[in-house]
Design brief:
The protein has helices at residues 9-23, 27-36, 48-61, 65-76, 83-99, 154-164, 188-201, 214-224, 243-247, 253-261, 269-277, 282-285, 307-310, 334-349, and strands at residues 106-116, 119-129, 139-143, 167-170, 206-211, 229-233, 293-298, 318-323. Helix content is 43%, strand content 15%.
Length: 353
């Protein structure tokens, strides 16, 4: 289920231009796309998918499969609201796998079967490792948010595999990409199933790194104590799901999240608030048996209130950091954030730099 919604390419580029550059798309290419795209949903000249896909095909013609995967990744942004977006994701997977032989780490795409809602479902995950000997190393689960998925955070996955000596297991959070579950509290079962599988893949130690909305799930696994360490970067935890906060979400984010939740129509504010409120981790925050947790966000995040970071202050085995002068996920200070996270994870799970 999905639906398109009113949002302008201008607004998307205003919000995400630097993010696209950070993911690896050349700045000149992003500028080119900003000038060429006039519509968010049409698959014709000037359409978001059409123009990004045309850029991807140029890369393919030049035997640049990874760059093509980046362009297709932008084409499917911000959600799979129509068939053109879904086709762009399929093309991204094809291009990414074609590029995998050139990755600087060992790579494997694996289908993992897990229980969900009384049946068995499968989800593709991506494994990154320096040695390829997964059984000898801890496993670090990682996912991005509602519009930045496992292939989009490729550089982070590679850097963590290289810097920590772990196996990185990247997955799409519920409601996104190739994950079979919608964005709903019931989808915790999928993430908990991945944690269990990760213990069997590696040496038994498992950590979880969540970015943006993906950090809602790493907060869940950390607060439950089912992982050995949890990093929560820019996660909506509790106050982000209040009506007051949800009404302030900019850049089409309510509709992006609603698509992930499985709505087939623009929900009313009451429908949206009711569905979102179920994703609050307030009940888990009342527990005191959490795993070691590192919680980080920028102090100027316009998606997630500061309270969702500050609520972790003073918890046992927990560090909480609000980064001055930074926004959502402290993206402008990401090198410093990743350095902090690598050092902290190395201490927690015994990874070897």
């Amino acid at each position: 289920m999905s639906y398109t919604f009113p949002v302008t390419p201008h607004a998307m580029f205003e919000d995400r231009f630097e993010q696209f550059v950070a993911l690896g798309v050349p700045r000149a290419a992003v500028e080119e796309m900003r000038g060429a795209i006039t519509d968010m949903w049409s698959d014709t000249t000037g359409g978001w998918v059409f123009e990004w896909s045309r850029l991807a095909r140029r890369h393919l013609a030049a035997n640049q499969s990874y760059m093509a995967s980046l362009a297709y990744g932008c084409a499917k942004f911000p959600c799979l609201a129509n068939e053109a977006k879904r086709q762009a994701l399929a093309h991204q997977v094809t291009a990414y796998l074609a590029a995998a032989h050139g990755f600087p780490v060992k790579f494997e795409r694996r289908l993992i079967a897990m229980p969900f809602a009384g049946r068995t479902v499968t989800a593709p995950v991506h494994l990154y490792s320096v040695s390829g000997r997964h059984v000898q190393a801890p496993v670090l689960l990682i996912s991005g948010g509602v519009d930045t998925w496992k292939m989009d955070i490729h550089n982070i996955c590679v850097a963590l595999a290289q810097g920590l000596g772990v196996t990185v297991l990247a997955f799409d959070q519920p409601g996104t990409g190739e994950n079979p579950a919608p964005l709903a509290i019931e989808a915790d079962e999928i993430v908990l199933g991945l944690v269990k599988q990760a213990r069997d893949i590696g040496n038994g130690k498992v950590a979880h790194f969540g970015i943006s909305f993906g950090a809602n799930y790493s907060a869940m696994t950390g607060l439950l104590g089912v992982v050995d360490a949890s990093v929560v970067l820019g996660g909506p935890i509790d106050r982000a799901f209040t009506k007051e906060a949800l009404k302030k979400l900019p850049y089409g984010m309510p509709d992006i999240v609603s698509n992930a939740m499985g709505f087939d129509h623009p929900p009313t504010m009451q429908e949206f608030v009711s569905a979102a409120a179920k994703l609050s981790r307030r009940a888990l925050l009342e527990r005191a048996d959490n795993a070691p947790m590192l919680v980080i966000n920028g102090e100027n995040d316009y998606f997630v209130p500061q309270a969702d970071t500050r609520v972790f202050e003073g918890r046992p085995k927990t560090e909480a950091h609000l980064i001055a002068g930074a926004g959502h996920c402290a993206r402008s200070k990401l090198p410093d954030v990743m350095s902090l996270a690598r050092r902290w994870l190395s201490d927690q799970i015994g990874a070897a730099p």
